[in-house]
Write a structure and sequence with these properties.
Number of helices of chain A: 15
Strand content of chain A: 15-25%
Oligomer: homodimer
Strand order of the largest sheet of chain A: 6-7-14-11-10-8-9
Shape of chain A: globular
Radius of gyration of chain A: 22 Å
Pfam family, one (chains A, B): DHQ_synthase
Structural class of chain A: alpha/beta
Protein name (chains A, B): 3-dehydroquinate synthase, chloroplastic
Largest sheet of chain A: 7 strands, mixed
EC number (chains A, B): 4.2.3.4
Helix content of chain A: 25-40%
Number of strands of chain A: 18
Largest interface: A-B, 41 and 41 residues
Enzyme class (chains A, B): lyase
Family (chains A, B): Belongs to the sugar phosphate cyclases superfamily. Dehydroquinate synthase family.
CATH architecture of the largest domain in chain A: 3-Layer(aba) Sandwich
CATH class of the largest domain in chain A: Alpha Beta
């Protein structure tokens, strides 16, 4: 595992050529070519992603990733910093690029990034900013964000709108408060919306930005693991309808995602675990090596070891960025990111928004998807056991709430976005760990069996 | 003027080569190369648009237009039909193509198009359709549209939602009824929304389609002149906010626009005149020849002469399609389509949505923009007189309602979408007839003078 506590970075040209070995530098770097991400080798994306790792003193210190036509180097070791005291700025971020042509953007990951005004300010368009946040996050980070937006930048004026916290407020009435504030503040097309908070804030602010004056720029500053590893990346925005989750929204990409890992210091344990459900998901659907790393490092993650969290966030973002780059509008591949979500959404909708956290519902949903995959004979029971094991260790649910019925599942799943011409398509594991399929071709009796196995009625 | 009562059409390859003269055909066609649109010669778009007109018996019968990489031939004369009785299908449409790369789509214009199921059905994706219409249009055309969608096509099921008629219902509460119906009807991502009605229905249905499940296909069937010449083309969708018009929405393109000119038979006179305001706008901002044609043919338009209306619709759509193709997201050129709209929106918002029709407010707004252009010394008084003359003849207002105050104009104009970093940019006429500018660089005193000239307080 690469340590990411004290990262530094530099830009490479877009050429696919690799940096040459450099044995004369003070840190004795040498070059080792390898794949950043195990899944790249397995999948058909090998040709899109090449990577270089520069090794210093036996530890991984620099890695260069090329995705599409963009290149970057991310450095991640205390060792380099120890040897170069003039570069001990602990706040230089790791960067993961989401490659979407003209709509590409960087994800900055690191400690203390909110203390670096230039990072945010380079992505602010126009002179007016609206920060959208909630009443839990505002007292903790709003002043810091306003300072980061305005320090040394007197031309920019910042307004904010503070929404009530919670999934149950991810609705049209609450969204209208954002529009009201934007219009009252006379924001124009050159304004920038900033989402400061978890997934609910990011989704609502993003959809508001997509719709206000038919589209203004926006920036994501996610403050939960859930938002940092999943919802802030990839441009899915929207709100819930009383009959289903995220049924109203837009695909709309941010200018950048800024992940200051220090914001996790204030995150409740239950929220932390909820976010880990999505981290575990990446391992199951496409990155077995990452899943194995999680099995070994789950205690460190739960204990909030900063380098473990930073690595889990970075690797999750790399997985998500690659999938989104290949399938922005979810014509196929991207749907695989929804392992467990169809069952999970049914739990959230049927059980009431906000009763369970999203990741808790997804965890139970993943167990159900894994159960179905096993019933279909697509995976062996060792995977079933490992999924139960890691979720239990993360203190996540491994079954839906007792009040859920088969009928509740069926009625919500019928309006799932992955239904096409009446057929419900699901993400199911198939083959060795790290492989999945998105399909409507499965035995519907097996689905019934799974639902009955997890519901009393 | 080309007659368009009995059009026929054929597709050309995308090559820029012109069809060869054909003097041997039964209808004695020959080729005349000319510009479809006078503005193409004047403007910088000449290289993008070439046209061929095939003349039969002295009357214009066929014209081929190339826009970008797409080509088509539109035929428009009773004479050809008279000479080829086997082709007397009066329902073959004129086609204007909106060239937006992968999001390109055709505008079909003609009489009796709703009696041709294949036209609509080729653009329906998936098996489920939701027709969005209002309580004025539903009794007149809903059955006809449902029949056109389903005849010979038993796999398709059609639901409909009937909204109250009027601009004052173009709001979030009414939009939610569309989502409610779509979800209750279990529509999925492969569904198609169909907007059947005027501009309000088209804008709301389009925004609902853009947002439902983050985007489903939609089709525009505009039934007013206003919607046929302007709002149904170009992908601007949205709803009003109590503080301003169209402040919430999306750029979202339809699969096709189907204009059955027969639907104008049921249009009230006041609505007809309102639509003509936008027709007149195209002449003023970019098509002096079209404006001159309107001056000569206004009586025919008001008398609903079918061929005059069809020509006005076709030429308006050509103008709009060209502008939208060049500037889909309104970074500059497209804004010129809003001549008079900043003043007009202020009238609609200040005076109350639905008191005046959109085109009535735009007409008064155009007079104010022309007044300001004249005060700035940018146009001569002959243009001012001609604008007053044609609007009066169309029975459109040439001044805002008496209750409008300078302050009402200023407060609404301050939240106009064309404000950028606090500066209000306006579309103003400049130079000979058919030329305009979109600019924030004008004497603000002159704007004050215009507002005071048209308001009592």
């Amino acid at each position: 595992m690469a340590s990411t506590t004290n990262p530094l970075y530099a830009s490479l040209s877009a050429k696919p050529s690799l940096p040459k070995p450099n044995n004369n530098s003070s840190s004795d770097l040498f070059v080792r070519v390898q794949n950043v991400n195990a899944v790249s080798l397995r999948s058909s994306f090998v040709s899109r992603t090449t990577a270089v790792e520069l090794i210093g003193g036996g530890n991984s210190v620099l890695s260069a990733t090329r995705m599409g036509s963009r290149s970057m180097i991310c450095a991640s070791s205390a060792q380099v910093v120890d040897q170069s005291p003039s570069k001990t700025d602990s706040k230089v971020p790791t960067i993961v690029e989401v490659d979407l042509g003209s709509r590409s953007y960087p994800i900055y990951i690191g400690s203390g990034l909110l203390d670096q005004p230039e990072l945010l300010q380079r992505h602010v368009h126009g002179k007016r900013v609206l920060v959208v946040t909630n009443n839990t996050i505002a007292p903790l980070y709003l002043d810091k964000v306003v300072d980061a937006l305005t320090r040394g930048n007197p031309n920019v004026s910042v307004d904010s709108v503070i929404l009530p916290d919670g999934e149950k407020y991810k609705d049209m009435d609450t969204l209208m408060k954002v529009f009201d504030k934007a219009i009252e503040s006379r924001l124009d097309r050159r304004s920038t919306f900033v989402a400061l908070g978890g997934g609910v804030i990011g989704d609502m602010c993003g959809y508001a930005a997509a719709s206000f004056l038919r589209g203004v720029n926006f920036i994501q500053i996610p403050t939960t693991v859930m938002a940092q590893v999943d919802s802030s990346v990839g441009g899915k925005t929207g709100i819930n309808h009383r009959l289903g989750k995220n049924l109203i929204g837009a695909f709309y990409q941010p200018q950048c995602v800024l992940i200051d890992t220090d914001t996790l210091n204030t995150l409740p344990d239950r929220e932390l675990a909820s976010g880990l459900a999505e981290v575990i998901k990446y391992g199951l659907i496409r990155d077995a090596e990452f899943f194995e790393w999680q099995e070994k490092n789950l205690k460190s993650l739960l204990a909030r070891d900063p380098s473990a969290l930073a690595y889990a966030i970075k690797r999750s973002c790399e997985n998500k960025a690659e999938v989104v780059s290949l399938d922005e509008k979810e014509s196929g591949l991207r749907a695989t990111l929804n392992l467990g979500h169809t069952f999970g959404h049914a739990i959230e909708t049927g059980f009431g928004y906000g009763q369970w956290l999203h990741g808790e519902a997804v965890a139970a949903g993943m167990v159900m998807a894994v159960d179905l995959s096993y019933r279909l004979g697509w995976i062996d029971d060792s995977i079933v056991k490992r999924v139960h094991q890691i979720l239990r260790e993360a203190k996540l649910p491994t079954a839906p709430p007792e009040t859920m019925t088969v009928e509740m599942f069926k009625s919500v799943m019928a309006v799932d976005k992955k239904v096409a011409d009446g057929l419900l398509r699901l993400i199911l594991l198939k083959g060795p760990l790290g492989n999945c399929v998105f399909t409507g071709e499965y035995d519907k009796k097996a689905l019934d069996e799974t639902l009955h196995a997890f519901c009393k009625s």
